Structures are given as structure tokens and as C-alpha cells.
């Protein structure tokens, strides 16, 4: 688990990375920033950008495939410039954008019969990944409480995100869960808080 101070470092690293990339076209070197040793650990992470309450970009590393600091830098640039759902963020938008960083636990396959999955999933605690063949979709733990989903709706929407039928979790798709620590600005460029659901 990260401390609140480390969460503030994570959000600051994400925001500064985006600003540097949008204004200068250069990638921030995370080694130039004062960080704690947790940022050297391999962790999954997502960077989420919101503007006026609406999603403006969200990309990350579901698996712990690189150091937390490198994953934040990569995810921050991707969320601001490579999310196919949105045009790239413009530098002048950054003062309107709220930056959120979610640090993930490694995903684990849920070892249970499909019919039992809705009873096992805790809304606000678990994020989900659904996989079938080449299809894969992920929803972060905060999505279900923010959207008012129950566990079955959360499973259905993760399948839809993967490009599968909503009930694919009942018909053979693999379901994985993970947890996340969510650190977010409470307003654009505002105080960083740890969100609880």
C-alpha cells in the first residue's frame, strides 16, 4: 500500500509528465524527481483524466510489467495523447483536467464457477478483467460505484468493454480480479486525496 504522500507523488509525476510532453514533446525522466523506493517496485497502474466530470482519457498497465515510476510516465502520456476514444489533450486544457492515478494489485483469476461470481465480487474493492481468445476488457474498481453497478452489471459491462457479449462471463470467458488504490486531485490541480468507495 502507498501512503498518502506517495499517492501525491504519483499524481504529481503523472501531471508533470503530461505537461512536459504536451508543451515540449519530451518525456519526463522519473529519476529527476524525488520519489520513494515503492516507485522502483513493479506495479500495475492506470492514469485517468477527467474534465468537467467527464472522462477525458484512461490508459494504463494492467500487469506489473515495469517499475511504478516508468508505468506512471508511460500511462500518463498514453492517457493524454493515445486514448482512441478522445482527441489528444491540448496544453491549454490541463488547468481544466483532474488527474487520477490507480495503483493495482496483480490480477488473479477468480477460481469459482461462473454462477458464483456475482456473490464474490465486492463493489468498490475489486476491479475486473475479462478475457476470451484475443478479446480482453478491464474496468477499474472505482467504475462500479461511480456508475451505480451491482456485481452482475459490473461483469456485464466488463464483457462489453472486451467486445464480448454481456453474458460472456457465464459462457466461458475467464474473469480476473484485482484491487486498486486510487489517488486523485479533488479539483483540477487541486489537493490530492485517496478515494474510498
From TrEMBL:
It comes from the Archaea. Residues 5-194 form the AMMECR1 domain. InterPro entries: AMMECR1, AMMECR1_dom_sf, AMMECR1_domain, AMMECR1_N, AmmeMemoSam_A, Uncharacterised_MJ0810. PROSITE patterns: AMMECR1. This is Protein Mmah_1651. It comes from Methanohalophilus mahii (strain ATCC 35705 / DSM 5219 / SLP). The lineage of its organism: Archaea, Methanobacteriati, Methanobacteriota, Stenosarchaea group, Methanomicrobia.
